[in-house]
Amino acid sequence: MKANPSVSRSTRRLALVASLLAALAPAAALAQQGAFPTKPVRVIVSFPPGGAADQIARAVAQPLQEALGQPVVVENRAGANGNIAGDFVAKQPADGHTLLMSSGGTVSINPHLYARMPFDPVKDLAPVAAAARVLVFLEVNPAKVPVNSVPEFIEYLKKNPGKLTFASPGNGSSPHLAAEMMKAQAGVFATHIPYRGAAPAMQDLLGGQVDFMFDPGIGLQHVKAGKLKLLAVGSPQRSAQFPEVPTLEEVGLKAFDADTWFGFYAPAGTPQPVVARLNAEINKVLASPAFQERMAAIGAVPVPMSPQQFARRAQVDSERFGTLIRERGIRGD
């Protein structure tokens, strides 16, 4: 049977059109992505105003707004150790116009804390850029805890078993886990009082409602004013701001590292060129003297990374904190 010439020509035309569309599709997608941003960018902070996450987000927002040419609006959606904000961002359009600013706990800690998560942090969020590594500082209210060193503090805890209380920004937060690390290694006990963020926890430490806290940097001005006593740094290295203060490892607690890593995430599926643009612009902010000065004030260190490096950091933290959570039987609120 002879082939119908008109059918053959029609088939060839369809094939040609399909190939042209396939060739143009990437260019069209890139053109669309290149227009980013086309409207204000929202940064959803997973903790209340005044904490480290909030301060970092606001330190990035203004210069990022200038770089992107669109308003960058910071909103606080606190609760559930970051799950409320994380779930909200995970369900937004994957176009780069809504970002999450959170501690690594939302991705690395919460899946170990909560039997049920409202979203899957690994599958539903895309790492965009790390922002800062926030050191944690072991501080006591000197009016309630009359000690001047970690050995004295541990001895005081042993002499007063169960009588002291410590604050944290929330159950399962990095400062909470830092205290659990110390308790486990030192063989001491104190009662945990969780708050909805670091700022209200700090207020009660200053007011004497709690005795001590692993501070993620927001109370350092009170240390300098003599209202709080800084005993040690819960980080691998000493703080440049307080070089005379030892690390907990230096005073006998092995491999003590409770630093909190803060960064930006986008909904999964956000186009790679958009993520790359945001990563590049945020890393430029991190390199600026103005940002570095603001981070030094809260004992933080800028940590520019690629999205892939940031994802690997989250995986490392998930493994080490997951072990601690299981061993200490810690559960979410």
Main attributes of the structure:
single chain, 333 residues, alpha/beta, D-Maltodextrin-Binding Protein, domain 2, 2 domains, 5-stranded mixed sheet, 13 helices, 11 strands, 45% helix, globular
Written description of the protein model:
By secondary structure, this protein is an alpha/beta fold. It folds into 2 domains: 41-134 and 260-328, D-Maltodextrin-Binding Protein, domain 2, CATH 3.40.190; 137-233, D-Maltodextrin-Binding Protein, domain 2. Helices cover 45% and strands 17% of the residues. It contains 13 helices and 11 strands. It has helices at residues 5-34, 52-68, 83-90, 105-108, 110-113, 121-124, 150-159, 174-186, 198-207, 220-224, 272-286, 289-296, 307-328; strands spanning 41-45, 72-76, 98-103, 125-134, 137-140, 165-168, 191-194, 212-215, 229-233, 260-267, 300-302. The protein has a 6-stranded mixed beta sheet, sandwiched between helices. A 5-stranded mixed beta sheet has the order 7-6-8-5-9. Helix 8 (174-186) links the parallel strand 6 (165-168) and strand 7 (191-194). The longest helix has 30 residues, at 5-34. It is globular. The N and C termini lie far apart (76 Å).
